[in-house]
Design goal:
By secondary structure, the chain is mainly alpha-helical. The protein contains 20 helices and 12 strands. The strands form 5 sheets. A 3-stranded parallel beta sheet has the order 1-2-3. A 3-stranded antiparallel beta sheet has the order 4-5-8. It has a two-stranded antiparallel ribbon with strand order 6-7. The N and C termini lie far apart (81 Å). The protein binds glutamic acid.
Length: 478
Amino acid sequence: MTVRVRLAPSPTGNLHIGTARTAVFNWLYARHHNGTFILRIEDTDRDRSLPRHTRNILAGLAWLGLDWDEGPIYQSRRIERYQAVVEQLLDQGLAYRCYVSEAELEEMRIAQKAAGKAPRYDNRHRFLTEAQRQAYEAEGRQPVIRFKIEEPQEISWVDLIRGQITWNTQDLGGDMVIARADGYPLYNLAVVVDDIDMGITHVIRGEDHIANTPKQILLYRALGYEPPQFAHSPLILNPEGKKLSKRDGATSVAEFQQMGFLPEALKNYLALLSWSPPDGEEIFSLEKAATLFDFERVTRSAARFDWDKLNWLNSQYIKQLSPAELVERLTPFWQAAGFDLTTVPDAAWLEDLARLIADGIDRLTEASSLSRFLLQDPISYTLPALEQLRLPGVAEAMRAMATTLAQADLPEISVQSLKPLVDQVAKAQGMKKGLLMKSLRAALTGDVQGPDLMESFVLLQRRGWALPRLEAVQRLLA
Ligand code: GLU
C-alpha cells in the first residue's frame, strides 16, 4: 500500500502553529514511507475563507520547507462533486431534507436544557410525509440536508496515536447536516468525499477533530468505503496549559518568522513537541527525523509550548550557519531596521559582522540592536556609556588612542595588529587595561556592553568609523 496523507487547512486564518505541527507529522509520515503528501485547501466556508489566508498558508509551508507532492486542491472547485454525493445519499434514503427553522431549533435547545438534557437535533423531520414536505416547500422554507445517524450504535477505531477510541452515536447530536440550505456542503461531508477521491490512507490531524471522526466513519460506510487509518495528535498548549492564543506572543507561522526564528529550528521544535527520536537527540533535520518517525513515539498528552527551548534550538541553528548564510538570513532584519547595507566595505566585512554577533543571539531580530553601532553612524550614547566617558583620564586616553591608531598606519587591521596599540596606550596613559577597554567600548559603540570589543574595533576601523568616534568623544565632553 502506498501511503497517501494530506494536510487540509481551512483558510479562515493564517497558518497556525498547530496546523504547521500537523503538517510536520504528515510530512514525516509520508517521507518515512515514500508516500505522497497532499495539500488541500478547505475553503468551503465562503464567509470566512479569504484568499490572503490561503496565500499565507502556502507561503508558511514553503518557508518551512514542507513541500507537498500534490495540490493545492481547492474544495471550492469541487462543489458539484459534493452535491452529487449528497444527491446520491438522498436517493439511497440515507439522507433527507430537514425544514426545521432556526427559531424551532432554538426552541428545541431551550426545552432540552430545561429538561437537563444535552442539546441535539431530535430527528423530527426524518419521517416527514410527502404532504408535509410539500407544505413546508409551499411556505418557502429552504431545507438543509441531514444524514441519518442510527442510535444507539458504537463506532470504534484504533487511533494510531491514541489507541482504541469508541463513541456512541447517541452522543453525536442527532442526524447531522451535510449540506446547507443554499446547497453548500459542510465540512464532514466534503472531507470524506475528498479523502475517498484522493485515496487518502492515513488521516493525521489534531485531536480537536476526534469528535468528527465517528461521523466521518459513518459517512464512509454509507458511501461504501473502508475508512482510512486515523492518527490524532495532541494539541499544543501554552506554558500554563491553556489553548495557545494571541496572548502567548505568537500563534501563526508568519509571526514566528518575523520574530527571527529559522524555519529549520521551528520545524525541529514542532517535531519535538510531541515526538522524540529513539536516540534522544534534540537537534535534527526533518529529513533525518523522517527516517525514524513512527506514531509509537508520539505522546498522547498535550504538548506545552516552551519558549526557552525554542530560543535555545534557534540559537543552535544560528551558530551552525556559515557567515554567508547568516548574512542572507539577517539581511531582511537589518533592512527592516533601516540600515543601509549598500555602504558597507564589502561582502567579507558583512560576513565578519555576522560571525561576530552569531554567538550572542537566540533570534535573528536580536541582530539589529547588537549590530547597530556597526551599521549606523553617528551613534547615540547610553547614560552608562556617557558616565564611563566622563571618568577622569578617559578623554585623554581616547585622544591618545586616536593618535596612536592614526600614526600606526597598519597595513592590515586585525585583532593581532590592534592589540599592541591598545596595550601601548594603556601603558602611556598609566591606565588599567580594563578601564581602557570599557572606555573604548563606550566611545566606539555608545554602550557599555555588546559583542567582542576588539573585533568590533577592527570592523569599525575597516569601515573608517573608529577614528571619528574616538575623536567625537572630545566634542561630546567639551
Ligand atoms: N479543515 C480542517 C481544519 O483546518 C482539517 C480537517 C481534517 O484534517 O480532517 O481544522
